[in-house]
Design goal:
The chain is mainly alpha-helical. Helix content is 78%, strand content 0%.
Length: 273
Amino acid sequence: MKTLQSILPSWLKTYAFLYIVFLYLPVIFLPIFSINTSATPKFPLSGFTFKWYGDLTRTPALTDAAWNSLLVGVSASLLSTIFGICAARAITRYRFPGRRSINGLLMAPLVLPEIIVAVSMLLVMLQLGLNLSLITVVFGHVLICIPYSLSVLTSGFEGFDRSLEEASADLGESAFGTFWRVTLPMVSPAIISSLLVSFTISLDEFIMAFFLTGTDATLPVYIWGQLRFAAKLPGVLALGTLLLVGSIVLLMIAEIVRRRASRRTQNMGDLIA
């Protein structure tokens, strides 16, 4: 038993290392090949250049797709965060029949096959008589982003000290005023994290956008369309690198905000105690 206990930690470290290498090694090749002078992604590299990045700004279709993704991402992040605030507030503050079941249903898009959800959304939109456009893409992205938003906001609301709301009510503030002036400012780091995470998820979402988009393509759909042409591959690699860097930066900011909020909540709890 002692031998097993001594071997297990080192084995787990090795497994974690191999898993990270398997997961992220292909991603590392993306920025490497994006600065290669050759249009073919292979080793050895034939040279070093940034011309593929410069060509991105001279592509009108890419500019339109980037603008579409920005509109969809901002809209989806705002709507999913608003819905997430309402759901997280109800789940963490009140006790009602079916609370756990409702929470499970809200988190269901995380475990359901995304292509099934996308096809179902497409059928619903067509049955409602809606034309496929960026609006339908926003609806689909909101459905996907709500579970992520809810998980972040639930953590923020659970760490909130309710005695602050009670103090506000004792001072004569209304329920809405307490929520607006006390609760929201205290959970604002979780709200910011929810906005950033939802925007990142929406920016990278392909399957839902592919099924629900009309004539206006988002960046992932545009990239998929360009992959059919070998001459467009270097530009796709450059664009993919920019999206990768942007996603990492946004997630890092969201994590920093979340950790600062957690430390602030813990410090306030220590002061009150």
